Recover the amino acids of this structure.
């Protein structure tokens, strides 16, 4: 299997960052900057498992039609494949999948 490269579009990174920033705002006493940073890093890393342990699925959101989708249970990733590069176009936390 060839080595895939992963590229995050700014929209996908912003969705991940915004989600955990909002969690930090809401739960100020129980969730700190270190938790936020760890969760963001984990969500971004999990995107690099697309097409390896996170398998391709049919998109469930209409705005993702034409792209592929993968999930790790917490995050859903919309992506395209361009040669040996996986471009992560968008991300959505499981709580926001509707």
């Amino acid at each position: 299997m060839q080595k895939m490269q992963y590229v995050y579009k700014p929209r996908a990174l912003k969705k991940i960052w915004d989600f955990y920033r909002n969690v930090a705002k809401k739960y100020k006493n129980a969730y700190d900057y270190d938790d936020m940073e760890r969760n963001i890093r984990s969500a971004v890393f999990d995107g690099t498992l697309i097409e390896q342990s996170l398998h391709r699925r049919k998109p469930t959101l209409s705005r993702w039609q034409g792209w592929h989708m993968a999930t790790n249970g917490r995050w859903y990733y919309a992506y395209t494949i361009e040669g040996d590069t996986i471009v992560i176009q968008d991300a959505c936390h499981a709580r926001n999948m509707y």
User: Anything to note?
Assistant: The CA atoms of residues 15 and 91 lie 6 Å apart.
